[in-house]
Amino acid sequence: LLAESYQCTESSCVNESCSPATNVCTATKGCFNQIQKFDTPSTGTDLVWKQKGCSSDTCSALTFSATLGDQRRFIYENKCCTTDKCNQEDITLSPPPAEANGVHCLSYYTELGMQNIPTLLSCTGNETKCGLVIGTAVGNSNLFPLVMAGMGCATESACNLTVTVFNNTNIHTFCSDEFVVSPNKPSVPDSTGSAGSMGFRPTAISTVPILITLLLLKVLF
């Protein structure tokens, strides 16, 4: 028997720049509708990537977010559907929740040539896990093709993933209770701007580069 087929909207947008025309493709596995958003301290470096089309394999729905150090936040949402042009409408993202959920994570972010000091981050909404994210370049033959590394708050769905984002970076995520910051330690810089009695375990700052190096080795080998 022939597999059922249907039409899917096919388009791609980076920030406000979209493909010249909306095309249509024929799918048997499913239509997908995806948005990726990377918020930074400056709107000039923010990045939004939208893509719609036909799944080459069975479509897998996935939604996750992570708030990292240096005011970086990444949101990923991939929706699947199986009717004609069911992926035509754009995905609308909700604003990040402001209400703290009681979890405090070690917060850090670095790119090549960039330095960042670990701070304390108060998690909000459903970002209830503390995680580490490593980004490596797609198709790069360098031994250590590191693009970025960060730590912070994440949704449970963001834990232990390997996903390609923005079509050029493979991100690998790890969640651990070891990244959780105890609330009864001496005061340290707070990335939410509300320094108080909460702080790091004594070894937290010094072990950040070691953690990233060890996890990068785990990813690559």
Automatic annotation (TrEMBL):
What's the encoding gene here?
Answer: LOC102926422
Q: Which UniProt keywords apply?
A: Secreted, Signal
Q: According to its record, what are the GO cellular component terms?
A: extracellular region
Record-level GO BP terms: response to bacterium
The record lists the organism as Peromyscus maniculatus bairdii
Q: Where in the cell is it found?
A: Secreted
Q: Does the keyword Nucleus apply?
A: no
Q: In its UniProt entry, what is this protein called?
A: RIKEN cDNA 1810065E05 gene
| InterPro entries recorded | CNF-like_PLA2_Inhibitor, Snake_toxin-like_sf
